[in-house]
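Chapter review: from sequence to fold.
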Amino acid sequence: MEDDEPLIVIVDDDDAIRDAVINLLASVGIDAVGFGSPAEADRAPLPDRPGCFILDVRMPGTSGLDFQRQLYAGPGRGKPVIFLTAHGDIPMSVQAMKAGAIDFLTKPFRDQTLLDAVQTAIERDCAQRNASRICDRHLERFSALTPREREVMRHVAMGRLNKQIAHDLGITEVTIKLHRSNVMRKMNLASASDLVRSWETMAPHLSEDAAGAAGVAPRGRPPDHRLLHGSAACS
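The token string follows.
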């Protein structure tokens, strides 16, 4: 499917560099688009596809480092970034890598070095996207649980025994077993270890009182309009 094919977004005010990178990626079957500034890229209606950004550091207006911060603070947070610049220094590269960049390359660059970085970025983004899809499925199923079933699920995920949960909630152990069975069925889980993994996947996205009558906290992850990928589609 086209939506699973990588798309690489290149943001660099140097036309020659943009064209060179686009042609390099095209030579190995990776789709790419180029923009002359972060503002131009931010306005573009890019499709929801896996991939990464390749950013220059120094550009008119918003710098590449500032744009990286914007990306990671917005709906596309976590989208891999590769820096490609003629103006890099050690403090700048450290800042970029600490902020989550895949690599910090200097111009002129070796073709294979850039291609290796892009492949790493694609693989990371595919993994993130797949994990996100799994989490979304768990959250959707969790929303169908009753408040009591959510409580029971949390206690089970914490490793507590049925009789301990029954004592804490002031209900019978038989009722706990019934709720636990409903949780397993509604969540499509086969074992207690599956339940623990499901809870750990969802926990960062649940509201603080999710053990009781709480629902699912908004994940704040609408389809990102800034996406990408290339030769190896997400499986």
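Two observations follow directly from the output. The first strand starts at residue 7 and ends at 11. DSSP finds nine helices and five strands in the chain.
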